[in-house]
Specification:
Blueprint (H helix, E strand, L loop, with lengths): L1 E5 L8 E5 L9 E10 L2 H8 L8 E2 L3 E9 L11 E4 L2 E2 L5 H4 L10 E2 L11 E5 L3 E3 L6 H5 L2 H15 L6 E4 L5 H12 L3 E6 L2 H10 L3 E4 L5 H8 L5 E6 L6 H7 E9 L12 H6 L3 E4 L5 H12 L7 E6 L3 H9 L6 E5 L1
Parallel strand pairs: 11-12, 11-14, 12-13, 14-15, 15-16, 17-18
Antiparallel strand pairs: 1-2, 1-4, 3-5, 3-9, 3-18, 5-6, 6-10, 7-8
Bound molecules: zinc ion.
The site of zinc ion (ZN) has 7 residues, from helix 2.
């Protein structure tokens, strides 16, 4: 099959479009013919080098495609069926997995991180990871859902327990997690404040349901949040930007407010003033992906039209380098895709 593989860590130039052997289908697995795969910031981190990644390696976490073949032990699927591949990789039998907390499994990783991903023509995955979806959802739309919507859902619903009427600050409205978090917060009837770096992006954020938008190049986020909330601050900050916004994010919280983070796009070393942490009774929480049940729940909302995946543009698989360069410039609004 054709695949884009990395043989060393580095810039976009390490992405090589080449022939490689088809994956071996185990008896308990499903072979999926990849139709679309969306990019995530995780792809950039893995390409630059993360521990636990064996080379050569295939990137790509979010896969939609068709069933190409099924293993002898697999039931309930047939060749040609349109399916979404759940990006969670887990053991399936530990106490966390059987409790439905797959993202706490000791073997947990995301497709394309410590295991090969979907920037290729064929991928073999366990039956539990294969979720059929109807024709009403396109392959690009389907492949835009898993990582960002599950991550945002787990942050707001699973970890924080968002309640109707709360005020939520979502950083980076144009990012995949930002787009998902705005819509999920609105689904819970929250008041949503978001940030972006251009008028066009801010307009699109409003169209997604954001009540207030802040241009982070022209305005100081904490000052605007103070003005919008009548000096009170927000209940929840959805963080994934990291070093560049961390101090501002903390300033935006109300007393006993919660910051939840799932990423560090601009850098991972930040400072916390412990006096502020305890005196303002802040809650700083970490979140990593989400559970299989959360993916099924999110997909239900997508199919019902209550949550909308946003596709920015797609590149052919052999132009994955250009797709990485485009994502790195942060000029997108929505998901950057590869068509296979
Ligand atoms: Zn497990």
């Amino acid at each position: 099959m054709k695949a884009v593989r990395i043989h060393q860590f580095g810039g976009p130039e390490v992405l090589i479009y080449e022939d490689t052997s088809d994956p071996q289908l185990r008896k308990d697995q499903v072979l999926v013919r990849v139709k679309a795969c969306s990019l995530n910031h995780l792809d950039l981190w893995v390409r630059k080098g993360l521990p636990g990644v064996k080379l050569p390696h295939i990137l790509g976490s979010d896969v939609a495609g068709e069933v190409a073949d099924i293993g002898e032990y697999v039931t309930g699927l047939k060749a040609g069926q349109r399916v979404l591949v759940a990006p969670m990789h887990f053991c399936g039998h530990c106490v966390k997995c059987v409790a439905g907390l797959q993202n706490q499994c000791r073997e947990f990783t995301v497709l394309g991180n410590a295991v090969d991903g979907g920037n290729c023509e064929l991928i073999a995955v366990p039956r539990a990871n294969v979720i059929p979806f109807p024709d009403s959802l396109g392959f690009n739309q389907a492949a835009s859902v898993p990582v960002v919507f599950v991550t945002a859902w787990h942050m707001l619903v699973g970890v924080v327990g968002v309640r109707p009427g709360q005020t939520v600050l979502v950083l980076g409205a144009n990012s995949g997690v930002g787009i998902a978090a705005i819509q999920i917060a609105k689904l819970f009837h929250c008041r949503v404040i978001t940030t972006a770096g251009s008028d066009a992006k801010l307009e699109k954020a409003r169209a997604l349901g954001a009540d207030y938008v802040i241009d982070h190049y022209k305005q100081k986020i904490s000052e605007e949040v103070r003005r919008i909330t009548n000096k009170e601050g927000v209940d929840i900050v959805v963080e994934h930007v990291g070093a560049a916004t961390w101090d501002e994010s903390l300033r935006c919280l109300k007393t006993a407010g919660t910051l939840v983070t799932c990423g560090a796009t601009t850098g991972s070393s930040v400072a916390v003033d412990l006096r502020h942490l305890f005196a303002r009774q802040l809650r700083l929480l970490g979140s990593y992906m989400g559970t299989m049940a959360e993916l099924h729940e999110v997909l239900g909302h997508v199919l019902a039209g209550r949550l909308k995946p946003v596709v920015d543009r797609s590149f052919p698989l052999k132009e994955l380098r250009a797709a990485h360069e485009y994502l790195e410039k942060s000029q997108m609004f929505g998901k950057v895709m590869v068509d296979v």
